[in-house]
User: Fold this.
Amino acid sequence: MNVLGRDHVADGADNRSPATVPLGTFLARDGSDGAVVGIDADTPHAAVIFGKRGTGKSYTLGVIAEGLADVPGVAPVVVDPMGVFGGLAETGGRMLDPVVRPAAIPAAVWPDLLGLDPTGGPGSLLWRIVADAVEAAGSDGDASPSIESLRWAVSEADAPDRTRRAVRNHLRLAESWGVFDAAAPPVTSLVASGDPTVLDLSGVPEAAAGAVVRAVARGLYDARVTGTVDRLPWLLVDEAHAFFDGVADPALRTLLTRGRAPGVSLVCATQRPSALPGVAVSQSDLLVAHRLTAGPDVDALATAEATYLAGDLAARLPTGTGEALVVDDASETAHAVRVRERRTPHGGGDPRAGDTEAARAERATRTERNPGR
Ligand SMILES: Nc1ncnc2c1ncn2[C@@H]1O[C@H](COP(=O)(O)OP(=O)(O)OP(=O)(O)O)[C@@H](O)[C@H]1O
Assistant:
């Protein structure tokens, strides 16, 4: 199998290494299938998957997650803002309603998370209360105050009534998101086995989803730095542009720029490459580009136009669903690829009127009225 992302000379792995994620086949100019191709999972990577709506980004992310589930020594964690990765649970994976500990979000970030100015009265009170509560909860980093205990501490704080009321209301909002729990399992539990874990963030408000992604990205990074997890985590983020726009941004940037050294991989899929920071493309060693048409998104590809690629990448993008151009830093090449079919069901794609209960009922009624037709 041809393996993208693998530097044979540097890591000594060869093409028979089991740490390979099957991706699909090379796509010949005449549209026929060429040799089988995979992605290296022996070493950590940063990758981006681009493509306009419906071109197969989420599907490709699912193909990679499925493949990683078969690789010994790694653990895929999928951030699923649209609730389309439930199919991964059918092969031993699990879909979780994510909860994280309040202490997983640094005190300095809480004002921003709840839309408060950190230099204003309520913002600075919240910052101080969280910092004090985390310190009081314990120095082992595992204990966390609950949102309820933070609210109580605010009531007791030496601050004007109006300020305390504002902070309590904002904490009530955070509680209503349902993603904070002082007794939440540690982030390391997500990678305790090699089966895919899907964090179902569908219906979760954007700020809350950002908090979860921050806690998970940072938690996995810290756990690898301190040696508390053995497996190499792969964080796969769908609709990634949304997370670079909030409190998750610094944690994702850390993975992009420093994640590979401790062994954490990041794969970001987005329909809006132009909404990702430049560092997402410049730090990625693999780029998978499905069809793109919007000017700024096509321009974002220019960042990947490394000197080893002659010519215009945008002009080389394949047009069919599930087809992509893969730019590989390790081999310094770009190839058109047809992504293989999923083994587990994919939940994406636009809803079809014909698949609704209403359509099924109408069809049944018509057949009853006209049994011969
Ligand atoms: N490699 C593939 N092989 C077969 N079918 C595919 C492949 N890739 C995508 N498809 C089909 O195309 C549909 C759309 O793909 P997908 O949901 O991944 O699009 P998307 O680019 O993520 O869109 P969105 O931005 O709406 O999430 C899928 O439901 C699937 O039926």
Observations:
- The chain is about 30% helix and 20% strand.
- The domain at 42-99+186-340 is CATH 3.40.50.300 (Rossmann fold).
- The two ends are 51 Å apart (CA to CA).
